[in-house]
Design a protein that fits this description.
Elements lengths: L1 E4 L7 H11 L7 E4 L6 H10 L2 E2 L13 E4 L6 H9 L3 E4 L3 H15 L3 E5 L5 H7 L5 E4 L12 E6 L5 H14 L4 E4 L5 H14 L4 E5 L5 H12 L3 E5 L15 E6 L5 H14 L8
Helix pairs in contact: 4-5, 7-8
Length: 286
């Protein structure tokens, strides 16, 4: 079986920078990571082994016990940041600059009187961090959720890992159902996400099945899987090589391999080698 890797796959610069900061911390037991640093189970296990305290990102109402708090790559609201600082916590900030751009765009539109339409996954930590600072907003996941809004000004922004095709569909639906509104769109889908999605488009026409490597909670990884399935292509979302099942590839001549933006290179390589082993012709002893 031939295995073709996507031209762009795996870790983005935001995750790489966050890991570099983490690696430089000398006393991890004195630091609480405010949520999941990245949505990658292998990374989280390593952080736990080093002694970091890790707060559940959906239960962050209680103040961390440690004096130092690390803000994850997904960012937090201005409101939450102020609460931590008021409590005397020292902050280590690993927020991806492209996530910061979403926050800035949302606040700028709000200051100009726009009702914010945030295209993204409801409940996702990045989305929650943005809307916690907003007074007038809706989170939209699908074009079907778009309605005629009563607001005269509508500002559209996106979660950094939103699928470009879904963004365009929702944007078109907003325009169609709100012809009376002043609509302003700021494309805040990050470039690494776009490059991963474009590389997947080029890969899909060459293969029969796609293996997508990434954390179970990784939104950008799920979007890659969804894109494959929307095209009628079988996709398997795995976290590591041990998740692969040989029967998935019975009769398959060409398999594709891609990975989300928080997936370690070593994990990708392990999956690649495992796929090659699965695809090797069986030797018959005689």
């Amino acid at each position: 079986m031939r295995v073709i890797r996507a031209e762009v796959l795996g870790m983005c610069f935001g995750v790489r920078d966050a890991l570099k900061i983490i690696d430089s911390i000398d006393q991890p037991e004195e630091v609480t990571i405010h949520g999941e640093l990245v949505h990658n189970e292998a990374v989280l296990e390593r952080l736990d082994a080093r002694g970091f305290q890790q707060a559940d990102e959906h239960r962050r109402t209680a103040l961390p016990m440690t004096s130092t708090v690390l803000i994850t790559a997904h960012g937090i609201s201005v409101k939450e940041r102020k609460q931590l600082q008021t409590a005397g916590k020292q902050l280590i900030d690993t927020t991806c600059p492209l996530v910061t751009r979403v926050h800035s765009a949302a606040l700028a539109l709000q200051a100009e009187g726009y009702h914010i339409l945030l295209i993204g996954k409801r409940g996702h930590v990045e989305v929650q961090g943005v809307i916690d600072d907003l007074e007038s907003f809706d989170v939209l996941q699908t074009p079907e959720e778009v309605r005629c809004f009563s607001h005269r000004k509508l500002g559209i922004i996106c979660q950094t890992t939103a699928a470009a095709a879904n963004v365009e569909s929702i944007r078109a639906a907003v325009a169609e159902r709100n012809p009376q509104a002043d609509i302003r769109f700021i494309d805040t889908v990050c470039l690494p996400t776009k490059e991963h999605q474009r590389a997947l488009e080029r890969l899909m026409v060459q293969v029969e099945v796609v293996v997508v490597v990434g954390g179970k909670n990784s939104n950008n990884t799920r979007e890659l899987v969804n894109r494959c399935r929307a095209r009628g292509l079988t996709a398997h979302h795995i976290q590591c090589a041990a998740d692969l099942l040989p029967e998935w590839f019975d009769g398959v001549d060409t398999a594709g391999l891609t990975a989300g933006t928080s997936t370690l290179e070593e994990t990708i390589e392990e999956v690649h080698q495992a796929l090659l082993q699965i695809g090797e012709p069986a030797t018959v002893s005689g």
